[in-house]
Amino acid sequence: MPDEKKPAFAANITADDVAAEAGVSRWTVNRAFRKDASISPKSLEKVRNAAERLGYVPDLRAASLASDRSNLVALLIDDFANPHKLVMMERLTRILRREGWDILLVNTLDRADAGHALMNASQRRVDAVILIGIQFDDEVLDTALHARRFRKLIIFARTSKNPNTISIAVDDVHAMKEIANYVHERGYRRPMFLAGPRTSSAHLLRKETFVDYWRQHFGSEPETVSVAAYDPGLAAGIVEDALAARTKATLPDILVCENDALAIGATDVIRHKLGLRIPQDIAITGFDDVPQAEGANYRLTTYRQPLTDMAEYLVKVLGNEEDRDFDRLFAGKLMVRDSA
User: Fold this and answer.
1) pLDDT tens digit string along 107-122?
2) pTM score, two decimals?
3) Rounded to whole angstroms, how far apart are CA atoms 190 and 108?
4) How many CB atoms lie within 10 A of CB 228?
5) CA-CA distance, 322 to 101, in Å (whole number)?
6) Would you give the distance in Å from CA 140 to the centre of its chain?
């Protein structure tokens, strides 16, 4: 014969059952499961203990409908060949979850898929959409903003001139001037800049800043080459094509890379296919400070983005209902290692 004291199946347990078990009101039970609600520690403990005994799980969807908030954000990300994307994703998701935000993670495959993913996110009752990637041009952003049902559209780790988005990024201009000065102070005079893809909206200012600053302050025009994606394999092929036919005397003395993914690909081909030494024959700098940059195979001089500070600021923006300019640029740190 079944135990009559055993609670009903958890799916049938309601907030009223928890209230009766804890000896509190139903209103107190509802507040106990809201992130920002005011409730005494004693009442919170009573409700949580009662819910655990009964196997109660609050209906978050119903709560979000009642409050017009879901505590859900959509994180749209692409370009997984770039190792820095995984670092950003880990840091963001950890801090978001710690602060009570749930995440809908979407891998956007290409520009067409980016628009579809944004529209899909707007139908999921997410409170905000966070974009980390290169597929989001002005047309895609404007379409999503026109039909959106979310409060905030945040571009993370890139700057956007779209007035309806929020940019949280490292200060590329300050960073590249610091790199240019370091390169010149170390005695390099023939830099080549290895750039990634150009985007019209979520833009990096690294190539333009470095080239303009070098020209204005040091009197020469740096060479530039571009890669269609932040992929170490693609970067290796571009660098091999650009340098293979040159004599040592005509090589650039330093390769300034837009990010570490490009620098890693360049390092591999320079050492293992072109047979050149780093930094004796050609030096290399990167940007981002991915975990591989510090490893013995690369020892990459690079610029570290303050991802934790950027992610902490992002969650503050998510919780702020004010209508104001939340754009913010962060200063990072030049990490000097053996490659330059």
Assistant:
1) 776 666 666 776 676 6
2) 0.78
3) 38
4) 11
5) 19
6) 19
